[in-house]
């Protein structure tokens, strides 16, 4: 049984779901350790949340049963949302492996394996993969879930409530997993074959980006008890709330029939779409195996060639290489979108916390809001710049980097470094500042332009500082994760963040108050960035490009013998 | 002229290449033969400058690799053994990237890239990303990129791999013509037929050492299978009949 083709194939598909394809063997091992560590951290956080919620529930035990139940509903929405989030993220990450693909077809169909075996094994591997995350998150949150239901002893319905919660939460996770599968299934069936890979990558990036941006909302779910009490209309837009409605319906409380109906309808809908797409793809395997004859008309203009033009040929070539790779490589697109969305989610959380949006006069809330608005883009820039550096580091196809190694020269290195800084500046500085600009203009008025100018100059300086020693062509250098000592890096990163965000908010407040100060700040930061740019050019001309990542050499060996 | 003197390469304790010497004159096509693990790819990587030798020197047209690697590499066009290219680019994107990295003028590239794609029958697929390309199509893109800057020395590692009959004949004729015009071609392969049809001289490598260097014409005079037999003798290959028997016994056994 252990060695039957079905089991072997399922094991193969399951293992390949964890193979991200861009790391060396050492890197993959390091990543596995990091993932296991994250799982341990998740379990520990589950325990910590119990401690936090204990105080809340000891207070609630004295409240009337209605108040207690509303609080439980809000907390259950949170407890269901967390596994939903993890499962959707896990399935979204492997979006392109949800269905047997061309490689599977070419390799496996040549073997004496039937199509049902291949599809069945793929499905079994997916179920195992999703089940791992569902089980892991539910185990981590089980103590918290139990705590929320202890008060049910008062009504004598603990067992029924626990069962209803378990069923609803499991269905919620199933819904999240199937929703991602359904989107990918529909895409596989209806997207033009020529754009299938690109669309699939875009959907994956969009899924990851949306999930990261939704984190601040997930964190706020324990505070929506009043919305449940008022049966607020917007709860119909929040899938975890649907399943809380279903939970209440299962225990016989029919005050939220619309939410329960949405949960049932939604789950059935995504289940049907997923099953139909699996069946149709099973019957029309050619959808994933046939390549298009041509992706564009042969008589199309030669615009792609024209786009490579420029006075600095290597800078243009590398800039275009970066742009194409981020657009077409699902891994890099997902990384860039995911990292920028993570920074955006962090900032969004603060903006949601802020009040005073409609205050017309200078109040304490208004001042706090302005500080948040000045802090937000700088925080996004601070997080996005190193994130972009990381995204540019993750290799694409190491065997193909010979073309850069063969054409390397001093001037080319300098031009390449300029292309790197431009890419970081565009995506990690200009984009966040542009996203926050309209909001700042709305609150600060025309004086926001001074703030924007200083933000741009600070961002440029940070980009130059971060990329000063980066002697690589993006996506061409091997990457070894986990080179640094994690606690040290965390403390250093946190300290840098505190210093940077505090100092930049002070500078921006000054710039907002005094136009002259804004001009001086912008000139000083830009001049410093320009000096760093000159040094970067010199450094690039003198150094060699790096194509192999190395572990740090300044290791202090343990001396365990007394020699 | 390409000159390799005392080329040695060690990977840790492993001696991959041991004091290899050879010359390659303008107009010559030299076949570089050897069994797997003999040091062929190491030599190729040293010649194109992707690896640094542990000892020894290489020079091309009087420019030593150790003195001026950039000027040295500018004279080389390279087709690697595996079709290693950035498959998320289109063929024209890839050739433009290589051309810009080699600092070819825009006007030259805008004329040369579409023309090369047309001549190598890739023009209809120029807007498709190379993920959809067959091995032969990728090989043709790599040949185009190696020729793009009109190099003095072409280093080709199994260039006929994956090419169909017509593309193979075109490449063979092209290499012969380039050699006739004075280019140097170093051609690493396992295919004796191609060496006999194309090369003027052959260098055989075994265990990191040159074990044979002869003109191809000499083999032709000695008989039809002379190159293959000499290769087997020179590289001390085992008698294959008992080995084949053992393999069959293994798969037929219980």
Which range best describes the helical content of chain B: under 10%, 10-25%, 25-40%, 40-55%, 55-70% or over 70%?
40-55%
Shape of chain A: globular
How many structural domains of chain B?
A: 2
The biggest sheet of chain A amounts to: none
**Topology as H/E string of chain B?**
EEEHEEHEHHHEHEHEEHHH
Shape of chain B: globular
CATH topology of the largest domain in chain B: Rossmann fold
* Low-pLDDT runs of chain A: 292-301
Order of the strands making up the biggest sheet of chain B: 6-7-8-3-9-10
Q: Supply the helix-strand structural class of chain A.
A: mainly alpha
From the structure provided, what is the oligomeric state, counting identical versus distinct chains?
heterodimer
How far the N terminus sits from the C terminus of chain A, by CA atoms, comes to 55 Å
Helix content of chain A: over 70%
Structural class of chain B: alpha/beta
Topology:
The complex is a heterodimer of chains A (563) and B (254).
Chain A: H1 5-16, H2 25-60, H3 65-93, H4 102-108, H5 115-149, H6 158-190, H7 196-220, H8 225-230, H9 239-250, H10 257-283, H11 286-289, H12 303-306, H13 313-328, H14 330-353, H15 364-393, H16 402-406, H17 410-444, H18 448-466, H19 486-513, H20 515-542
Helix pairs in contact in A: 1-5, 2-5, 3-5, 3-6, 3-7, 3-9, 5-6, 6-7, 6-9, 6-10, 7-14, 9-10, 13-14, 13-17, 14-15, 15-17, 15-18, 15-19, 17-18, 17-20, 18-19, 18-20, 19-20
Chain B: E1 2-11, E2 14-24, E3 29-33, H1 40-47, E4 55-60, E5 63-64, H2 69-74, E6 76-79, H3 91-101, H4 106-119, H5 135-147, E7 153-157, H6 165-180, E8 184-188, H7 192-198, E9 201-206, E10 209-215, H8 216-222, H9 226-234, H10 240-252
Parallel strand pairs in B: 3-8, 3-9, 6-7, 7-8
Antiparallel strand pairs in B: 1-2, 1-4, 4-5, 9-10
Helix pairs in contact in B: 3-4, 3-5
């Amino acid at each position: 049984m252990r060695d039957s083709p079905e089991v072997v194939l399922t094991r193969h598909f399951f293992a390949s779901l964890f193979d991200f394809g861009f790391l060396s063997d050492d890197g993959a091992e390091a990543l596995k350790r990091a993932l296991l560590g994250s799982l341990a951290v998740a379990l520990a956080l589950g325990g910590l949340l119990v401690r936090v919620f204990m105080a809340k529930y000891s207070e609630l035990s004295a409240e009337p049963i209605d108040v207690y139940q509303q609080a439980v509903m809000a907390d259950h929405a949170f407890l269901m949302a967390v596994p939903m989030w993890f499962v959707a993220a896990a399935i979204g990450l492997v979006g392109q492996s949800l269905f047997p693909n061309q490689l599977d077809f070419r390799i496996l169909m040549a073997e004496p394996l039937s199509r049902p075996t291949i599809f069945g094994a793929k499905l079994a591997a997916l179920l195992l993969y999703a089940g791992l995350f569902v089980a892991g998150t539910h185990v981590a949150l089980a103590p918290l879930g139990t705590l929320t239901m202890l008060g049910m002893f008062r009504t004598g319905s603990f067992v029924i409530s626990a069962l209803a919660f378990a069923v609803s939460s499991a269905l919620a996770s199933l819904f999240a997993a199937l929703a991602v599968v359904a989107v990918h299934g529909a895409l596989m069936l209806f997207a033009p074959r020529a754009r299938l890979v690109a669309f699939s990558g875009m959907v994956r990036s969009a899924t990851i980006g949306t999930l990261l941006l939704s984190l601040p909302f997930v964190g706020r779910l324990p505070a929506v008890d009043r919305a449940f009490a008022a049966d607020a209309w917007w709860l119909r837009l929040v899938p975890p709330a649907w399943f809380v409605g279903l939970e209440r319906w299962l225990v016989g409380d029919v005050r939220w029939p619309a939410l329960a109906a949405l949960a049932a309808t939604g789950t059935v809908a995504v289940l049907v779409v997923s099953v139909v797409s699996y069946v149709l793809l099973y019957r029309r395997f050619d959808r994933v195996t046939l390549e298009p004859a041509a992706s564009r008309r042969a008589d199309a203009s030669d615009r792609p060639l024209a786009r490579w033009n420029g006075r600095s040929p290597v800078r243009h070539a590398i800039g275009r290489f970066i742009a194409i790779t981020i657009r077409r490589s699902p891994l890099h697109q997902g990384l860039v979108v995911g990292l920028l969305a993570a920074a955006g989610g962090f900032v969004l959380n603060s903006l949601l916390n802020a009040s005073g949006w409609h205050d017309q006069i200078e109040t304490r809330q208004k001042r706090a809001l302005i500080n948040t608005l000045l802090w937000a883009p700088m925080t996004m820039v601070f997080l996005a710049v190193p994130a972009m550096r990381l995204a540019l580091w993750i290799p694409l196809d190491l065997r193909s980097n010979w073309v850069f190694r063969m054409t390397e020269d001093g001037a080319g290195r300098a031009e390449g470094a300029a292309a790197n800084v431009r890419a970081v500046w565009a995506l990690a500085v200009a984009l966040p500042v542009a996203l926050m600009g309209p909001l700042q203009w709305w609150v600060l008025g025309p004086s926001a332009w001074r703030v924007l100018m200083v933000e741009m100059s600070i961002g440029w300086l940070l980009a130059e500082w971060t990329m000063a020693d980066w002697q690589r062509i993006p996506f061409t250098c091997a990457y070894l994760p986990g080179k640094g000592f994690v606690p040290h890096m965390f403390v250093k990163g946190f300290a840098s963040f505190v210093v940077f965000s505090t100092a930049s908010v002070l500078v921006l407040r000054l710039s907002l108050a005094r136009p002259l100060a804004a001009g001086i700040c912008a000139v000083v930061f830009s001049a410093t960035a320009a000096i760093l740019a000159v040094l970067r050019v010199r450094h690039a001309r003198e150094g060699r490009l790096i194509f192999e990542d190395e572990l740090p050499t300044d290791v202090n060996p343990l001396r365990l013998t007394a020699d | 002229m390409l000159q390799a003197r005392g080329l040695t390469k060690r990977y840790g304790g492993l001696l991959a290449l041991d004091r290899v010497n050879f010359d390659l004159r303008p107009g010559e096509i030299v076949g570089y033969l050897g069994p797997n693990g003999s040091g062929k790819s190491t030599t190729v990587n040293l010649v194109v400058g992707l690896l640094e030798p542990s000892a020894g020197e290489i020079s091309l047209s009087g420019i030593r690799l150790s003195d001026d690697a950039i000027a040295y590499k500018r004279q080389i066009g390279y087709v690697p053994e595996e079709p290693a290219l950035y498959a998320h680019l289109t063929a024209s994107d890839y050739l433009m990237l290589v051309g810009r990295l080699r600092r070819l003028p825009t006007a030259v590239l805008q004329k040369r890239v579409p023309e090369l794609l047309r001549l190598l029958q890739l023009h209809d697929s120029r807007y498709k990303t190379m993920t959809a390309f067959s091995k032969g199509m990728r090989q043709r893109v790599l040949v185009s990129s190696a020729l793009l800057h009109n190099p003095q020395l072409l280093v080709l590692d199994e260039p006929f791999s994956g090419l169909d009959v017509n593309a193979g004949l075109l490449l063979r004729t092209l290499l012969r013509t380039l050699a006739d015009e004075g280019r140097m071609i170093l051609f690493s392969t396992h295919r004796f037929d191609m060496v006999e049809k194309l090369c003027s001289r052959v260098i055989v490598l075994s265990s990191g050492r040159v074990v044979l260097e002869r003109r191809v014409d000499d083999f032709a005079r000695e008989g039809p299978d002379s190159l293959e037999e000499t290769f087997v003798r020179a590289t001390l290959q085992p008698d294959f009949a008992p080995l084949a028997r053992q393999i069959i016994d293994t798969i037929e056994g219980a």
